[in-house]
Amino acid sequence: MGLIIGLDLCDAYTQLSCYEKEKNWTLPTIICKCKNEDEWYVGEEAYARNLVGNGILVDKLLNLVSRDGTATIENVKYEGIHLLELFLERVLLLPQEEYKVKEIDQLVITLPSLSGKVMDSFLYCADYLKIPRERVHIISHEESFVYYVLSQKKEVWSNQVGLFDLSADCLCYYELKVQRGMQKMMVVAESEEQEETFNLDILDTPPGAKMADKILCACGERLLEKKLFSTIILSGKGFERQDWAPEFMKMICRRRKVYAETALFSQGAAYRAFDYMQEKTSYPFVCICEGRLKSTISMQVLYKDRISQLVVASAGENWYESKTTMEFLLDDSRSLEFVITPMNPKQKRTETIVLEGFPNRQPWTTRVQVNVGFLDDSTMAIAVRDKGFGEIFEATDALVRREVKL
Fold first, then answer.
1. Where are the domains of the chain?
2. Are 380 and 331 in contact (CB under 8 A)?
3. Beta carbons within 8 Å of 78's beta carbon, 6+ residues apart
4. Residue 369 host element (H or E)
5. Do 1-20+101-291 and 295-405 show the same overall fold?
6. CA-based nearest residue to 364, from 330, 406, 394
7. What string of pLDDT tens digits covers the 406 residues of the chain?
8. Which architecture characterizes domain 1-20+101-291 according to CATH?
9. DSSP string, 328-357
10. Cα–Cα distance for residue pair 81/84, rounded to 1 Å
11. CB 3.0-4.6 Å disulfide test: which of 28, 35, 189, 321 passes with 289?
């Protein structure tokens, strides 16, 4: 059996976990090229090479990729995507060498935030690493949080769950709640980067630690008041130890469980990676979070002489992986209607796509191909093409494209 890997990739750090393996890896997200050599190093070893003057560092790789950036090293220009490929190749060697297993059965990469451009980049990286694309998935930190929490005992998530993630550059708060009483259990996760933050270096002095403790207490009182929590989780480099925040710890420990898990996002991604490999999911719920659709899209169609609703995409689906191609015969209508049903059904609405420029034919003699995809979790992209009608009517160049905000 090959490796099942969860990889948390941020501009500051990278963490890696393997499913049902105890060891986790944490390293800075940096890569270094040795001077006058074609050798590359990552993480702490990259820092060490740079410190002795034998290497040139490149950091903030995600940012570099997102803006199509480049780095010039020894008069050679390297694209950000290629540096990311080299970085991932060396990071994945860590579990491969540790467990003497080269094959990767599933790789789930989790990111603080998602964009189509960055997600595309990881599929190019999969090609470079010779990992089949169907074995690589990209999810948000929010989704990793969901899969980590719901892989724990039920009492952990019987009420709301809060997560404080304190990294070197920000404090982010996550909240998860399970909604029951519907046909299918629904899990909703949200996150917000907090304005109150601080550099972790201040924790090295008593006055700085006291100030940081006070900042966290103010955040905690504002975020947790009047809510019923079963669990609070602490994650990130700032919570590798908690002795610097006695008042904050005292506050969050009132009538609720508190856990510290510094590799939460990579572990959640590893749980998700294992579930991707199963014929039937172990998590039978609708997940609403960043990276998942928050509305169901459907069309009213005539099928076998009956009017019915054809679901194009469902709330809770991964928007990046949700792509649909359909073909219809048109009646006398000159438009297509998409019904958008958000989580609040009172906000249900219909979007009409007018088929401008399509040939005017008799009812049921125009076949159209409809492609539906998503640019992000709140934007649907639709393309409708005229496909003619067999040998009677040839297909034309008629094409309508629309972007619809969900």
1. 1-20+101-291, 295-405
2. no
3. 58, 70, 71, 72
4. strand 367-376
5. no
6. 330
7. 899 999 999 999 999 999 999 999 999 999 999 988 889 999 999 999 988 888 899 999 999 999 999 999 988 999 999 999 999 999 999 999 999 999 999 999 999 999 999 999 999 999 999 999 999 999 999 999 999 999 999 999 999 999 999 998 789 999 999 988 667 789 999 999 998 888 899 999 999 999 999 999 999 999 998 899 999 999 999 999 999 999 999 999 988 999 999 999 999 999 999 999 999 999 999 999 999 999 999 999 988 889 999 999 999 999 999 999 999 999 988 899 999 999 888 999 999 999 999 999 999 999 999 999 999 999 999 999 999 998 889 999 999 999 999 9
8. 2-Layer Sandwich (3.30)
9. EE--S-SEEEEEEEESSGGG-EEEEEE-TT
10. 5
11. 189
CA dist 321 and 133 (Å) reads: 12
Fold for 295-405, please state it. Answer: Substrate Binding Domain Of DNAk; Chain A, domain 1 (2.60.34)
Is the distance from CB of 163 to CB of 264 less than 8 angstroms?
yes
pTM above 0.85, yes or no: yes
